[in-house]
Amino acid sequence: MLNRLKSAAAVFLVLFSLITLSSPKLDMDKLVAFTREKYDEDAVKRIIAWRAMIDNKQQLPEQEKLKLVNQFFNYFEFVDDIRLWGKEDYWATPLEFIGIRGGDCEDFAVAKYFTLLELGIPMEKLRLGYVKSLTLNQFHMVLAYYPTKTSMPLILDNIDGEIKPAYKRKDLVLIVSFNGQKLWLNKQKGKGKTASSSARMADWDNLSNRYSMEQFMSEE
Questions:
Q1: pLDDT tens digit sequence for 165-203
Q2: How far is the C-alpha of 147 from the C-alpha of 33, rounded, in Å?
Q3: What ranges make up the beta strands (E) of the chain?
Q4: Superkingdom, according to UniProt (predicted)?
């Protein structure tokens, strides 16, 4: 299991870098039309609310942005990949997650990650973390926010909606964390060592294409 998590993380180091380096101007008319055609009017409302949050809340303090984004996505429904996508493991883009209004723990964490990046949170302050949930006795994903390089992270989670410092989440054991810059192997809350991997997983290769605003806006 650990090797699979490390492999997935390694691929996302590449994909996140590609995606976050590309920031074409968003065409809301096309985005709304695409959402209406693929989903429904309720999905259109969610997409508009999502983009309004990003456009209008840029000046908030960082921790207020965390609360806003965490609350926005935690209203969504948890749905297993096999039920939603017919696959054991599928990482939805934020557009897919918002369109359907549901997904599993990876989808919650990824949507929060990208949204906070768009709200101006520096990438080095954010990490996606694979953890072992002792309460559920299963692997789980959360988003961690580091106010400084050496500080204890705050945990954004769809299971426990309250943002808490990692030391208060005794129900979680961190295994692997990563962002668009680095991969960390970690078994202690708030601490870890940098790691590298050349592993690749073909299943994830199309994520950057599916979420690239540049490609999306080029569709007619």
A1: 999 999 988 887 776 656 555 544 444 554 444 333 333
A2: 38
A3: 77-78, 102-103, 126-133, 138-145, 154-156, 164-165, 172-178, 183-188, 191-195
A4: Bacteria
Chain-centroid distance, C-alpha 79? 16
| Closest CA relative to residue 95, chosen from 44, 149, 131, 22 | 44
> pLDDT tens digits, residue range 132-148?
889 888 889 999 999 99
Burial group, residue 51, by CB count within 10 angstroms (0-12, 13-18, 19+): middle
CA 30 to CA 15: how far, in whole Å? 24
Instruction: Give the domain ranges of the chain.
Output: 2-218
Query: Is-contact 203 89, C-beta < 8 A?
Result: yes
pLDDT, residue 130, reads 84
Q: List 138's β-bridge partners, or say none.
A: 133
Which residue is listed with tokens 């929060």? Answer: 112
3-state secondary structure of 175: strand
